[in-house]
Amino acid sequence: MGTQERKKSNLKTALVLGAIALFFFASVIVKFLIRN
């Protein structure tokens, strides 16, 4: 039971980190496109 909960929280953390990374990547691309 405990391992299942931990796995769920790990997945949630991975999703949040992935979303932040995507947002950062997108903002960098937008800045690069605007500069050109």
Descriptive tags:
36 residues, mainly alpha, single chain
Instruction: For the record, give the distance between the C-alpha atoms at the N and C termini, rounded to a whole number.
Output: 53 Å
Please provide the ordered H/E string of secondary-structure elements: H
Please state the structural category: mainly alpha
Summarize model confidence as the mean pLDDT.
92
- Tally of discrete structural domains: 1
Number of helical regions: 1
The proportion of residues forming helix, as a percent range, comes to over 70%
Taken as a percent bin, the fraction of beta residues is under 5%
Uncertain residue segments? none
Oligomerization category of the chains in this entry? single chain
How does the overall form come out from the CA principal axes? rod-shaped
Rg (CA only): 16 Å
For the sheet with most strands, the description reads:
none
Number of beta strands: 0
Keywords: Membrane, Transmembrane, Transmembrane helix
Transmembrane segments: 12-34
